[in-house]
Structure formats: C-alpha cells, structure tokens
Amino acid sequence: MGAHNTSILEALWQQLKALQEPYLHAFVYGESEHSESATNMLVVCDDEGVSYSVDSFLIGVFEWLSKVSESKSMRKLFATRAEETGATAPTPLFNQLVACLLSYAQITTEMMDDWADDMDLFVADEDEDGYRFNVRVSAQELLQALDAAFSQTLPSAMHWATQEYTKLAQRWRQQENDNWWLVSEAILWAIGTLSSSVISEQESDAPGGRLDLGVLFENNVWPLAQCATFPYGQGRSFIFASSVCQALPTSIAAAFAEASSKAVADTQLHPAVRLSAVRATGNFCRLLPSELVKSHQGTFISGLASVIPQLSEDSAHVALDALHAALRVDQDIAANMEPVISQVVIGIWQRYPGDVLLTSIVIDIVEDMARNKQACEAFAQRALPTIAATISQSSDGMVISSGIDLLSGLIKGGPSPMPNGYTDAIFPLLMQILSASIDGEVLQSGQACLKYFVQKDAERIAQWRDDKGVSGLDLIIRFIGLMLSPDSSESSALFVGDLVAKVVQKCSSFIAGDVLAELIRVVTARLATALTASFCSSLLPLYAQLIVRHPSEVIDLLDGMHFADRTGLHVVLSAWFKNYLDVQGYYSRKVSAVALTRLYALGDPRISDVVVQGDIVPNSANKGKIVTRSMSRSNPDQYTQIPAAAKIVKLLLAELEMDVEGAFARQSAAALGSAAGEDLGDDNGDGDEEEGDWEDDADYDAMDEMASAGKYAYLSDLMGDEGDFDDHDDDEDVLEDPIYSQDLNEHLGAFFSQVVCADHAKFSSTIEPTLTTKEREALHRICSR
C-alpha cells in the first residue's frame, strides 16, 4: 500500500479541491444562489429515505492524511529543504492543503442552528475533548497531526494560507458580503488550535514565514471584536486573543483582558459572546503575569459568580474553571472576595453534587481557598455546615463520597493544626458515616479524608473523645481493622495503606508500642490473603517506609509473626517482590528501591532464608505453540527458586537499567531537538521515495504473631517525622523526605559498586550465579562507570 500512497494522495487532493466550493455553498453559506444545487450534489438519500452527506468522506480523507503525515516516504511531498542553508520550507501542496483546511473549518449553518437551540452544544463544541465529531473537528485533528510531524514547516504554510484567506475576508467585508466573518473566524480558530506552536515561533529567532500577529489582529481580530452582529465571530476574537496573549504587546493583552472582564457580566451580550469571554478570562488569568490582570481580578470573580448560577450542569464547568484561575491571581483580592466565592462554589456543588467534573473543580477551589491564610477560616465556616448537612441527610453514595472529598480538600489545603471547630464539627459525623457505610466510593473517600485529618491534626484527633470516652485515634484504628478484615472487599480498601502509614508516622507518640505492632500485624495478615496486585501494591509502601528508617527492627517484628506456615517476613517479601512493578508513583517507587538496598545491606540470614520466585523456565511442552488457557493450566509456567537477596539484586538491576534507559532517551531527545534544522540526514542523495533523506529530521521525529509490648516499644520511633508515599507534590511530608530529591540512579549505582567490590553477603558465590547473562552484562556496565 505504501508504494501507492503518492497516487492516492494526488487523487484525494483533487477531490478535496473539487468538493471545496460545493461544500461551502451547501453547508456554510446557506443562503447563496448555489446552495440548492450544491446540497443536491453532496447529500443523497437511499430508498428508505436515509440521507448521507459528504461529511463522512471528508472525515475519512482527513484521517488518512493524518496517518500519511507520519510516513517517512511521504515527507518530501509536504516539505522541501534548501541545500545551502538546510532550512525546511512547505511545498505548494502543503500551503494549499492548509488553506483548504481553513475552508472546511468554517462554522456550518447546522452548527449555528444547534447552538441557537442549545448553548450547551456550543460549549461542548468548544471543549478540547468535546463529544461531537464533525468536519471542523476532523480538520483540527489533521492540523494538529501536521504540527506534530512538521513543527518547523507548518507555521510557514499557515502564514501563507492566512494571507490568502485574510485577503478574501477583507474583500468580502468591503463588498458587504456577510460571510466574511466566517472566513476570519476560521483563520483565528485554526491558529488558536496551534497556539502553543504560535507562541514558541514568536519567541524564536527563526527567519521568514512567521505569522504577523499585528497584521492578524488588524485584519481579523479587531473587525470581529467590534462586530456584535456576528456573536460567534466576536466570541472567537476573545478566545483567540487570550490563547496567544503571551505573545501580544502588553497594551493589547491588557485591553482584551479588561474587555473580557466586562463582557462576562454584560447581560445584554449574546450568550455565545459571554461564554467565550468566560473562557478567555480563564486563559488570561492563567497565562498573563498577575500584575497585568490583578486590577481586573475582582471584576473577573464577581462576573463569573454572576454567570455560574445561570449555567446548566453541562456548561458550568467552563465558568467554574475560569473562577479557579481568577482566584489564584492574587490571594489578598481572593480573600476579600471570599463571601462571593464561597457562595457560588458551594452553591454549584449543592446543585450538582454527583457531577464528577464539576466536583473535581470545586475540590481544587476548596483546596486553594483553604490555603489562603486570610480566607481559610471564613471559607470553612461557610462551607462546613453545608457539607455536613448534605452528607448526613443524603442516602446517595455518590453524593456522600463527593461531600467527603470536599472535606478532604478543606483539610488538605488548610493549616496544621487545623482551625478550631474542624474536628468537633466534622470528625464525629465522618466516623459515624464510615462505620455504617458499605459503599465502596464512600469508604475510599473516607480513608483519604482520615489520612489528611491525621496528617494535619494528629494531636487533636488523639485528644478527642466521644460520649463513651473512645479517642479519635481508637476509632480510626477500629475503622482500619474493619477495612482490613477478610470480609471487606479489596477495592473498598485501596487507600487504607496510605491511612495506616500516616497513623504510624504521625500518631506513634500517642499510641502504645504494642498497639502499633498489632496494627502492622493486621496489615500483614491481610497482605497474606490479598488477591489483586492493586491492593497488594497499596499496602507495600508502608513496609518500605518502615524499613528505610529502621530495617533491623522491622525484620525482627515481621519474623516474629506467623500466618499458617509462613512468617510475616516471608509474606511481606513474597508480596513485595511479586508486585514490585505495581507500586504506583515516583516517590513510592524510589522509597521501595531504597528500602530494598537497606534490606540487602543488613546481610541478615533470615532474609536470605526466604526463597522466592526467580526467572521463568521455558516450558518445552508449549514451545512454538499459541498457549491457550487450558494449555497454561495443564502445563503451567515454571520458575527457578532463588534466595530473597538474589531477587533484590535482580529487581534493583532492572530498576537501574530502566532509569538509565530513560535518561538516555531524554538525552537523545534533547540532542535531536538541538540538532533540528542542522542534520537532516543526507546519506542517500538519490531522493528515494521509500527511504528518503529525512531520517533525523526534527520535523518528523517530534515523534511498583503480635510481638511483646516491651520488645516493640520502639515502634513509636519507627517512622519519625518523615515520609509518606502520597505522591502529591504539595505534601510536605513527601517534600521533606531526602529520598524525594535523591538521585536514584546514583544511589543504586553506588550500591552495586559497593556490593560487588566488597563481595557483600557472599555476592560472587551465592548471588551472581543466579543472574542471567543480560543481568551480568548490566552489572558489569554499572560497575565500570
């Protein structure tokens, strides 16, 4: 098929050009004199009266072109290279293709009719991940594919196409042809689709072919912005200006930011203009320096607050997201606007507590307001009663879970210790709900919320008592025990490992050593019967954290536990090795690797006495066959059995090799980027279509039994004040752990060099023979560096 791609492209290109004018008359310029004949040509009906249009054909062509743009053999049809300078330039075909896409990207009459009936559809069509697919969206995807394949060449092609279509829009505007705005809107829409590339190009020193934003604004943006007759075009001017605001002169960016702030609150404007201004507001607040938008922040917030209650569930996320961006501009102004923010944010959540998208944005806003030292207490005083009333009165698990997630946001973002009233107002209700619930989402949300409670206010939780004198920590430990009971589903307890780690870390000074030892025993007992990798991997970071701090003591504790015919040490090591790669998160994986080095360094014979699964043994019975389930049951895979110390070495070698390869890939990508436009690979100057001479062209290669209380009293110190395996970058416990910033590559390299040179734990005689040839080679490379 590849050999015929050029011929196919030529045929399809002729079709695209031939269909362009009829398509515009049939679907875009609805009242033109050629509309009826064009429609008859492009829309047909079968015998049953079902109509078919040319849309599906065009979408198919654009999808095919997206794939072709990735083909090495076709690149010379899109871009050429100057022999003297090595600079790339678009071919005439590329220029005309981009221009053609501007035609097909114009808003159709059907789209405007849909928007007139339902503005939610307008919002959906403007979303990056909108659910409606049409020719315009397909053209957008093709532009993005061309940008990925020809990042250096597309700007020049877009510049050429923009010039051609700007001339058309100007001519029609002078002739009072009302279709001019459709052309200008399509130009801005297409360039806005590539706004990141446009900004990068404006900031670069690349010669020629650069889009002139000044000319673009003069001929397309300003005429649309000043023309209320065409609201979808006027709205596009706001969105476009905000998407490229970083490349605009300060005066123009500030002017459009001010205009957007006024348009959001102007009830006389068309809804499409106001919604477009809402999107623009979010962009301005996110992209411009705070000094430029600070003076408009209050207007932004009040305007958005007035719009949000008027929007439906399907559209409110746009304004809510813009509000989130606006309140981040300046904390002092946000604090002054707290009554307005709290009312609209909690209000929209009350209306749609089950909407996942809206709730996620609300949680982000709640966290930010909780972090605002001037606003947090007032915001909490307004929010807590509403959240408490909602989760106590609702029987809908999704609503209760959503409310608990909001509580988590308040606590996570708030100070430590928390303000007075948090614990007394919320903790008893939360524990009451969790102790009675069997809903998996509610229980998961509750585990996360309790983790933040413990992280932020452990002392107050320990001091709190219910009417029976039971402490808050005792209630949490009982809840943990309930979640880890054999009757509890693993999916419901996915976050209990995080909670246990926080309790051990933050509350060890409030709990007796025997209670902590029992807590570890309960977790280990559940790990011994765990079935799913996701559940196992959620519990394992607890042991990694403990072993990093006090490896010898933890080994003593685990070795003293017995579950059927296995010790706790055997349970933990077996599960750890089996599910090592399933541990999720940058920080957790690093802690897990460092903990294994600590284990190996102990040289404890009890570790080596644990025999675990090693490498797979090829099954001769299945050799050369497609193995079915019945065959795998009758002839299951066999594995070597090796000491735990050897397994540690194997896992860490694999970890280091993956890290080295990742580093190498990043270095290679950086080298390719720096060489862009220099080395385009002139190995075979014959221009062979299939092999070509673009191998390194940057325009294409853009492409894991309870012990005695006296013996384990020191468990109170096992965690210290460090650690957490929550991978949120704003978790202070994570950021303060030296492991977080440690170079794992260097750490493991030093570990292996020391192990081999010192023949630690009889490495050469007991460990090295278990290594595969590939592992020995990797070890040699590491030790030779």
UniProtKB/TrEMBL annotation:
In which domain of life is the source organism classified? Eukaryota
- Can you name this protein? Uncharacterized protein
